[in-house]
Amino acid sequence: MNRLHHSSGQAPWRPAIGLAVSMLVICGGFYAAIITGLGGMLFPTQATGSLVMVEGKAMGSALISQPFTSTVYFHGRPSSADNDPMATGGSNLAPSNPELRDRVAQQSAALASTYQLEPEQLPVDLLASSGSGVDPHISPAAAALQVERVAQARGISTEQVSQLVAQYNESAQWGIFGQPRVNVLLLNLALDKNYPL
Amino acid sequence: MEVLLIFTLAVLLAWPLGRYMTGIFSAGSHWSDKVFLPIENGIFKLLGINPRHGMTWKSYGIAFLLSNLVLGIIAYLLLQFQHILPLNPNDIEALDWDLALHTAVSFLTNTNQQHYSGQAQLSYLSQGFVILTLQFVTPAMALAVCVAVLRGMLGGRNATTAKEGEERNLGNYYQDTVRAVLRLMLPLAAIVALALTSQGVPSSYQASPTVDVVEQQQTLSEQTIPLGPVAAMVSIKQLGTNGGGWFGPNSSNPLENPTPVSNAIQTIALVLVPMAVVFMAGGLLRRQKFTLLSLAVMGLLSLAFIGAAVYSEQQPNAAFAGLAQEAGNMEGKEVRLGTDLSALWATFTTQTSNGSVNAMHDSLNPIAGLVTRSGMLINGIWGGIGCGFVNFLVYVWLAVFIAGLMIGRTPEIFGRKLEKRELSWLGVLLVLPSAVILTFTAITVAFPALTGNSNPGLHGVAQVFYEYTSAFANNGSGFEGLGDDTTWWNLSCVVVLILGRYVPLVIPLLIAGSLAKKRQVPTSAGTLPLYNVTFAVTLITVILIINFLSFLPSMVLGPIGEALEISQQAAVVLAQ
């Protein structure tokens, strides 16, 4: 006869328990510890939250948005999580939800009056809340919109601000992946450094 | 462009990976034995098994169910008592029993539906040890069953020596599962985790740093940047069609998915193994043409859905009409990714039963909402690791049966006849999804106190339908606006999760076991040819019609109704 194993023969519990235990040790224990340690050794900055250091002091994470409301700074996207990285999340409002339309109408009116524009000229990303609530970027159009306001508030020329924005304009990564974007925190820190208040 | 590039890269990487998988699941030696055989033999000694002892379909199925039961009990106990167990530096409290049960079952069934909220409710032990392990083991278990089904379709490993009607050897469940973890999932996960860390995914056991924000606000004066062994978990979350992320909003969170390159890596990782299974199947069946057929059918459906979703998200969100520039729907999306990459991910994650997200599905435009639901209902375009291809085989069997009826011949596949016994079991599989999903949706919608919706009207119905569809398809993505941590949601989802995982894996194993025993009929002019356009079209039609008939009414109540509602609102706005 062939060596076919019928389950009636021996206690089937031992391999089932053994599998669970050995996998917990190998995957949950060894793998997680080794890979996490190795990642930290190879990429120490990235592995610990990509902190932005200015003169030895951490100013935030390059990956996490911060709230900016003053006219001397560029503003980021609306956040459904108040820019708190411990409570991230989106609005979860459907396009058909009247609550979403009300929120957007309010923001749109406010922005349109600030920048003296028709609502139809406002970049979408300044009105739409992000998925994470801590999106660190805005679109180049959203940055361009704010240049004049920031320049006026800081008493510098729009060219100076535009130049800085151009410098922080990230194009597609590796030439192909992703959208052009501007990191708001890094741009604002550069403003403070080059043109201190 | 980017979308097609990522799709093509995924297929090109899946090809060699599929060949490698064919090697490790075939009898005989393989070059990877040198590295892995000693470790495996150690594990088998601990398990007290001889991996060379084959199993019948029945003992294979029992081993599968039993190992799931044991793993589930251990996981439940570890989650339930996380507050008194070690590795809980943030003093996280106990989970309610129903939430602990739902979480254990959800990860055990490779679903990763989350009714808890991310890092706030789980200790490091729960997240980094229990859940991480389940994310490795559960795809491996389903892959093992898939491999056994494929072996059965050729008559088992003892096909040449066994007599007609004699039970067949479908391989050893424990050997297959352990190999899938050690030789496939672990090495892939290690590579992807390191690549993700290079892009900025945290990889650290240090305490989370707190920084003062640059412009102090009344609402927020400091930020805590959460760390943890995030990269290690995110990589297997993507690779293992798991989907449960470290952070609440999953891969839309810039710490979990920092750059467009990390997004490309994660998108490829999401479909890589499900695609590789398609290449593996042709190898194990010794019929490369079967891979071509599957690839053509799945690829066509996949690309059509991707196209629809990308188009959908390039359209403006209806709530923004007249209030902003006419541009794509950015509500719930990240600037670095934009609408196209979010739509691609949304399509893949629902086709593969992964369920991770890089944009909020609640805020998708209605057509993309329809695409995501259809992907989950079909559940066999790529599909979850192992179970997706098994579902696809079920569609193939049905198409063979229907095509056989049309030309008046006994339906057969690879020379083995599909007869009454097999067909009645296929009937069960056919009815089960709509019976389960629609019954639970109806009950929940009928009692508004149960639902906990964040959205009124038709979208509310859509949310409930989505939650149960996601549970049954073992997908795990959700409309996050649903207030789903209630006893009703937890327990009803546990039932749906279990039915959606085990029935669609065990019945095909039974069918394969039954097919394996049959006499092989030699190919003749009367054999139904599988490898041509006619059969491919029949197969696509079968896939679409079955799901269309089962779910059209609920689609009309959900996303289709919503689309009509929105276009009506838009017309009113324009008229003003």
From TrEMBL, chain A:
<comment type="subunit">
    <text>The system is composed of three essential subunits: KdpA, KdpB and KdpC.</text>
</comment>
<protein>
    <recommendedName>
        <fullName>Potassium-transporting ATPase KdpC subunit</fullName>
    </recommendedName>
</protein>
<keyword id="KW-0633">Potassium transport</keyword>
<keyword id="KW-1003">Cell membrane</keyword>
<comment type="similarity">
    <text>Belongs to the KdpC family.</text>
</comment>
<keyword id="KW-0630">Potassium</keyword>
<keyword id="KW-0547">Nucleotide-binding</keyword>
<keyword id="KW-0813">Transport</keyword>
<keyword id="KW-0812">Transmembrane</keyword>
<feature type="transmembrane region" description="Helical">
    <location>
        <begin position="20"/>
        <end position="43"/>
    </location>
</feature>
<comment type="function">
    <text>Part of the high-affinity ATP-driven potassium transport (or Kdp) system, which catalyzes the hydrolysis of ATP coupled with the electrogenic transport of potassium into the cytoplasm. This subunit acts as a catalytic chaperone that increases the ATP-binding affinity of the ATP-hydrolyzing subunit KdpB by the formation of a transient KdpB/KdpC/ATP ternary complex.</text>
</comment>
<keyword id="KW-1133">Transmembrane helix</keyword>
<dbReference type="InterPro" id="IPR003820">
    <property type="entry name" value="KdpC"/>
</dbReference>
<keyword id="KW-0406">Ion transport</keyword>
<keyword id="KW-0472">Membrane</keyword>
<dbReference type="Pfam" id="PF02669">
    <property type="entry name" value="KdpC"/>
</dbReference>
<keyword id="KW-0067">ATP-binding</keyword>
From TrEMBL, chain B:
<keyword id="KW-0813">Transport</keyword>
<dbReference type="Pfam" id="PF03814">
    <property type="entry name" value="KdpA"/>
</dbReference>
<feature type="transmembrane region" description="Helical">
    <location>
        <begin position="129"/>
        <end position="150"/>
    </location>
</feature>
<feature type="transmembrane region" description="Helical">
    <location>
        <begin position="264"/>
        <end position="285"/>
    </location>
</feature>
<keyword id="KW-0472">Membrane</keyword>
<comment type="similarity">
    <text>Belongs to the KdpA family.</text>
</comment>
<feature type="transmembrane region" description="Helical">
    <location>
        <begin position="292"/>
        <end position="311"/>
    </location>
</feature>
<protein>
    <recommendedName>
        <fullName>Potassium-transporting ATPase potassium-binding subunit</fullName>
    </recommendedName>
</protein>
<keyword id="KW-0406">Ion transport</keyword>
<feature type="transmembrane region" description="Helical">
    <location>
        <begin position="60"/>
        <end position="79"/>
    </location>
</feature>
<comment type="subunit">
    <text>The system is composed of three essential subunits: KdpA, KdpB and KdpC.</text>
</comment>
<feature type="transmembrane region" description="Helical">
    <location>
        <begin position="428"/>
        <end position="450"/>
    </location>
</feature>
<feature type="transmembrane region" description="Helical">
    <location>
        <begin position="381"/>
        <end position="407"/>
    </location>
</feature>
<keyword id="KW-1003">Cell membrane</keyword>
<dbReference type="InterPro" id="IPR004623">
    <property type="entry name" value="KdpA"/>
</dbReference>
<feature type="transmembrane region" description="Helical">
    <location>
        <begin position="488"/>
        <end position="516"/>
    </location>
</feature>
<keyword id="KW-1133">Transmembrane helix</keyword>
<keyword id="KW-0633">Potassium transport</keyword>
<keyword id="KW-0812">Transmembrane</keyword>
<comment type="function">
    <text>Part of the high-affinity ATP-driven potassium transport (or Kdp) system, which catalyzes the hydrolysis of ATP coupled with the electrogenic transport of potassium into the cytoplasm. This subunit binds the extracellular potassium ions and delivers the ions to the membrane domain of KdpB through an intramembrane tunnel.</text>
</comment>
<keyword id="KW-0630">Potassium</keyword>
<feature type="transmembrane region" description="Helical">
    <location>
        <begin position="528"/>
        <end position="549"/>
    </location>
</feature>
